[in-house]
Amino acid sequence: MNREQVTIKHIAKELGVSISTVSRALSNNPLVKQQTREAIQKLAKEMNYHPNFTALSLRQGKTRTIGLLIPQVVHEFFAQVIRGIEDVAYNQGYNVLISSSNESFERELRNAEELLNGRIDGLLACITKETHTFEHFEEYINRQVPLVFFDCVTDTINTDKVVIDDLDAGFMATEHLIEQGCKTLAFIGGPKDLNTNHERLLGFQKALKKHNLEETPRLIMHGTSGKYDEGLDLSKGLFNQEKKPDGVFAATDMLGIGVMKNAKAAGLKIPDDVAIIGFSNWEIGEIFEPSLSTIDQKGYDIGKIATARLLERIDSDQEMSMMTEVIKTTLIARASSQRKTQK
Amino acid sequence: MNREQVTIKHIAKELGVSISTVSRALSNNPLVKQQTREAIQKLAKEMNYHPNFTALSLRQGKTRTIGLLIPQVVHEFFAQVIRGIEDVAYNQGYNVLISSSNESFERELRNAEELLNGRIDGLLACITKETHTFEHFEEYINRQVPLVFFDCVTDTINTDKVVIDDLDAGFMATEHLIEQGCKTLAFIGGPKDLNTNHERLLGFQKALKKHNLEETPRLIMHGTSGKYDEGLDLSKGLFNQEKKPDGVFAATDMLGIGVMKNAKAAGLKIPDDVAIIGFSNWEIGEIFEPSLSTIDQKGYDIGKIATARLLERIDSDQEMSMMTEVIKTTLIARASSQRKTQK
DNA sequence: TATGCAAATGCAATCGTTTTCAATCAGAAA
DNA sequence: TTTCTGATTGAAAACGATTGCATTTGCATA
Question: I need a labelling partner for B293 at 20 to 30 A (CA). Which of A250, A340, B122, B254 fits?
Answer without folding.
Answer: A250
